[in-house]
Specification:
Distance between the termini: 34 Å
Structural class: alpha/beta
CATH topology of the largest domain: Rossmann fold
Number of domains: 2
Order of helices and strands: HEEEHEHHEHEHEHHEHEHEHHEHHH
Largest sheet: 5 strands, parallel
Number of helices: 15
Helix content: 25-40%
CATH superfamily of the largest domain: Nitrogenase molybdenum iron protein domain
Number of strands: 11
Radius of gyration: 21 Å
CATH class of the largest domain: Alpha Beta
CATH architecture of the largest domain: 3-Layer(aba) Sandwich
Length: about 350
């Protein structure tokens, strides 16, 4: 809640915003009504020039679609990834935002659109004169119909033909990857197994995951698994809850993935689980962003996980896919060593990401 002492400043900054792009007043032909992932519809200026990417699924695709010069800044967890400046050197020009930021900050910076990860954030910003859309990590009731939502939203907000071409190409790659994997799996009689996803973007150990409605739940359901997180009421279950579930495989992502894999393989009570004893513990690559987040690498994420989990049926050339995608979308050449580090959850020098 904003204290009364902030009101004069807010009013003054809102006035400034009218000249810097925050205001939605003006020619209606230059405006568009858009609906975000949680069903909130707002009117914004078309082709915004200063966007804040607080939702961590947004920065990657905006840059990839050629909108990097329209980005004012991004969430610090996104920009602090050491792969980002290597793949996209212009990232050094982008402001580093916290997870929660005041409306005054966005107004003072002339931001004309915020892509927020939570509904309450978007609602609060809209109430204080800052246009904001929620781009959530969760769908309602599932993520099935939201995989290409952000991509389609971008092409509504920005009307450049080149943006639409890049977005359409990415969407086709995503749909093709999903269909390729599903079609092959349908040829085989596979027993349903349980997967536990260890979310490693924060240092919370093995007991940190996603729940029902997440993209990861959708992805591993597509890959033929029961997602343990969909049965949990919290993203931080206890060790006892994980042991009771006794997953058939573990998949570990994020910058702390190798730390978490080591915990699984060396510490009680995990070392006694069937997945660990059977060496069914897999990593998820991380580059410009973690592959299990919606990004340029989403198609490759499906191919990579299919390779690892079902080596009998899949053998995609992941390294070539990664190199060509980074060149296509970011214009950057990466070495074979760098791709190897990326696929193994390491930094550009082959060391730890944390």
């Amino acid at each position: 809640m904003y204290k009364k002492t902030f009101v004069p400043l807010l009013v003054a900054l809102a006035s400034v915003g009218a000249f810097t792009g925050c205001s939605n007043s003006g020619n209606q032909n230059n405006q568009i009504s858009v609906t975000d992932m949680v069903g909130t519809t707002i009117t914004i200026n078309k082709n915004p020039k200063k966007v804040a990417c607080i939702s961590r699924t947004t920065y990657d695709l905006l840059v990839a679609y050629g909108l990097g010069d329209k980005i004012d800044g991004a969430y610090k967890g996104t920009l602090n990834n050491s792969w980002v400046p290597l793949i996209y050197p212009e990232s050094k020009n982008h402001y580093v935002y916290e997870y929660n930021n005041s409306a005054e900050l966005f107004l003072s910076r002339g931001v004309d659109l915020v892509l927020a990860p939570e509904k309450y954030m978007a609602d609060d910003l809209n109430a204080h004169g800052v246009p904001a859309l929620c781009v959530s990590l969760y769908g309602n009731p599932t993520f099935d119909s939201y995989v290409t939502f952000l991509s389609q939203l971008v092409t509504k907000i920005w009307d450049g033909d080149d943006i639409k071409t890049k977005a359409s190409a990415w969407e086709n790659k995503v749909n093709t990857a999903i269909n390729d994997v599903k079609t092959e799996l349908a040829k085989h009689e596979l027993s349903k197994k349980k997967v536990f996803y260890v979310r490693g973007d924060k240092d919370r150990g093995v007991c940190y995951t996603d729940t029902k409605g997440s993209f990861t739940e959708y992805a591993y359901r597509t890959l033929g698994f029961d997602f343990v997180g969909s049965t949990l009421s919290t993203t931080q279950p206890s060790k006892e809850e994980i042991v009771a579930q006794n997953p058939d495989i573990f998949v570990c992502g994020g910058q702390y993935q190798n730390k978490n894999i080591n915990i699984l393989k060396t510490e009680e009570p995990y070392i006694n689980l069937d997945a660990v004893k059977n060496n069914k513990v897999y990593n998820i690559p991380i580059g410009f962003t973690a592959f299990e987040q919606l990004s340029v690498m989403t198609p490759i994420f499906f191919y990579d996980q299919a390779n690892k989990i079902y080596p009998k049926y899949f053998d995609y050339d992941i390294s070539s896919m990664v190199k060509s995608s980074i060149k296509e979308y970011f214009g950057t050449d990466v070495t074979n060593d760098q791709v190897s580090y990326m696929l193994n959850g390491l930094n550009p020098e082959g060391g730890s990401l944390y």
